[in-house]
LacI family DNA-binding transcriptional regulator
Amino acid sequence: MVRKSRSTGRITLDDVAQAAGVSRITASRALHGGRVVGAELVARVQEAATQLGYVPDPAARALASSRSTQVPILVPMLSNALFVDLLEAVHRVLYPAGFQPMIGVTHYDPAEEELLLRNYLAHRPAGLLVTGFDRTEAARQLIAGSGVPCVYLMETTDAPGVHCVGFSQSASGSAMTQHLLDRGYRRIAFAAAQLDPRTLQRAEGYRSALKAAGCYDARLELLSPERSSMALGGRLLEELVRTHPEVDAVFFNNDDLAHGGLLAAHRLGLGVPGRVAIAGFNDLAGSDQMVPALSTVHTPRLEIGEQGARMLLQLMNGQVPAQSSIELECRLVERQST
Amino acid sequence: MVRKSRSTGRITLDDVAQAAGVSRITASRALHGGRVVGAELVARVQEAATQLGYVPDPAARALASSRSTQVPILVPMLSNALFVDLLEAVHRVLYPAGFQPMIGVTHYDPAEEELLLRNYLAHRPAGLLVTGFDRTEAARQLIAGSGVPCVYLMETTDAPGVHCVGFSQSASGSAMTQHLLDRGYRRIAFAAAQLDPRTLQRAEGYRSALKAAGCYDARLELLSPERSSMALGGRLLEELVRTHPEVDAVFFNNDDLAHGGLLAAHRLGLGVPGRVAIAGFNDLAGSDQMVPALSTVHTPRLEIGEQGARMLLQLMNGQVPAQSSIELECRLVERQST
DNA sequence: CTGAAAGCGCTTACAG
DNA sequence: CTGAAAGCGCTTACAG
């Protein structure tokens, strides 16, 4: 057999078709559960395909059909375990359905997200999953102009035509603040990092709960633009008790900050929750292991990933999801640190 | 202008070529830093391309050239921060060089890795990055048969033709064990999870160091196949002090286990390091925040990612790296828990 | 240094 | 239900 000069040596659909004694097009249809092909032929083609170890070429398919099976999912940062969980849940739904999630990390930078979007969209993705609603105008237009089905994760909106799965950031911020109020704390601080849109929404929830209770004091809000970490949490706690010794509770915006805060309290010999109560957010791994165990808000990131992926699956199939906006519930986890 | 029926409405190279008044092929060359094209033409083509907002179609390019710019990188698990750091470092080198790292998570499962490999290799990747050497025979053959340049991360070997960047797992296991011996501990336990190949190599290093010192006791090795977590670390510590009260130090195979062990010691009222010393591995975020701060081994995952990516870049360019196997150093981090 | 032709491997209308 | 033709958007030899 003579190989043409540009041949890649790859097993192609033609090889399969030839082996099965049908035309290339029939082979193509047989392989995609084509309802229009005779059952016997389907079997013969599939047999030949496995026999030869045929693997379809995604590039050729994408080019011919002008769509791929890739699904970019853009998250802010993998060092936040929250997003690792989200990705895992998405993967569990999309991968078995024949789609390849492609992870993109924006580092909380809208410019970087825009660049990623531009690159990924060039791959004719089957669908798109992004985090939240805060992005550049150009990024917005890229998404809209691409015609690629998109589901927004983590936050929700009622805007028409937007598909999203998330939870109320501000309500969850209020809920923990209210819990602290209910436990009798009055000088409740809020310590946050990164200051991304969702963090600021939670701060808003904190504020409104305290204002409603007549306990709001702007000086107890400690907002740092640094990235979230245990070390930062420790520093924020130290700063709070030094500059505002009257503080009796600290609501940390993410569990890693709270872990750091809790350990810093140990180091300073401050009793928790006796001298200062400590609360976290997200219920990340290890929060139940802290001493004392950390009170926090459990966020439904696995459900968000799963339901978001399911919604996208429907959109990619041309179906209309029953709901275009799904708001899930958070769960207050009361442990010993408050 | 009449659109053909199957047109996708996309701006193509033909559009750019037409706008610049050259042929499609010249446009292609001009866009790829083609040295053979006149400087003036290059400028005209690039101008036209940006003018029209041309984005090359990766699928078409992959099909025509039989290679893409995708670089799959296969890691065991994202919930281990170690691999998040590794990915970040790889991304920082590959992305600016025009390659797209595609993250694949194997969940420490060789069968899953083989499946991922099969799928990713179909995409004609430009290069490949994998973790360690432990995989199915089929996976090995897939890699070899693909002809795709591959760099192995985390472990090293002298096998000819294999490109790798890592550190000596067993030596790092020995080093921490020796540190504990030097500090005067004699009943030193080893607590590990997951039991992946690298964990077992570190266990081997622990064993040989203790044997050399005449202190080895197999009953102090606690190997759990569960996945690593703070909660598991806590349980392992409890079990150790209950069944082997004479234990005076515990070397945890990963920092998250050590964090959990440290907190469990607090809970049980065991002084650290007075009653029992605790050491970790990897030097993950937060280890310096523990109370007492955790002694551990800092592993060079950022350097591994960076140098591994650079080595792959050379291979993808058809160059021969100066070294085919790079073994990096770990650094013992002595803090207060030992 | 530039271009006309052929081809990468698949799918989409269009016939039968 | 099956197939011959054309095409997706690009790059690779081959000429000039």
